[in-house]
Amino acid sequence: MTTSPSPRVQQDPPLVQRVEIEGRPATAEQLLWPALVNDGHFTAMQVRAGRVRGLGLHLARLDSATRELFDRGLDGGRVRELVRHALGDDITDAAIRVYVHAPDGEPRIMVTVRPPAGMPADAQSLMSVPYLRPVPHIKHVGGFGQIHYGRLARRAGFDGALLTGPDGTVSEGAVANIAFYDGSDVVWPDAPCLAGTTLQLLEPRLGDAGLRSRRAPVGLADLASYPSAFVMNSLGIAPVRRIDATDFTVDEKLMGVLADVYASVPWEAL
């Protein structure tokens, strides 16, 4: 008899250690805007020994999105200063989020500090869902669709959701980018998505590691033609073992190369 997979239990998120807005502890009044108005954007980064992989990419993302949403630039030096201030003298390893809101039309920077985190060690299983993020190139707040479909995926026994278009075109994971491996090339889905910092760090370095890569449309009907797949975000890189009913092989050699490439990325001081 076939049994349904047991629902995944969603763990409570790590406690926020600090929340600062413009370098001061956030007040209840200041938090009303981000709590009630879903207008803003952010970036998420892992800090180790006061350093960040791809720091320049995070700063560029914040500046670009602030210009597009609020018609203002965002000084990277100011962002670094505020992150350092939130970490203080007592925290060197952390999961940092930098949010930008503009309650009065002027961008305001909020920094949250949580305990450091990493990608789960197990290969991931994903459930495809009929959803695409609005304004996908911006890492914006208000991700109800991602949260909702991620919850449904975990209830169905998967680790997370895979976002797809009306025609089954694969876009991205709910909280990660995805890539496929056809045995010779890494294939990045050619569809609107957020270009994550880890993707941006990996893609231009694969050639030097002997891996060819290319962009191409990937549909749900094409999944069986790819032996392997992997996901990546600021937490790291993980293999994919299953999407819906399609199983993938965990290619240890491929994952080793990806891990080496990622490890070679220099950490930048805040």
Automatic annotation (TrEMBL):
Presence of the UniProt keyword Translocase in the record: no
Matching InterPro entries: Aminotrans_IV, Aminotransferase-like, BCAT-like_C, BCAT-like_N
Gene Ontology terms for molecular function: transaminase activity
Keywords from the named record: Aminotransferase, Transferase
Pfam families named in the record: Aminotran_4
Highest taxon of source: Bacteria
Keyword Transferase tagged: yes
NCBIfam families given in the database record: PRK09266.1
Protein name, per record: Aminotransferase class IV family protein
Species, as recorded: Streptomyces himalayensis subsp. aureolus
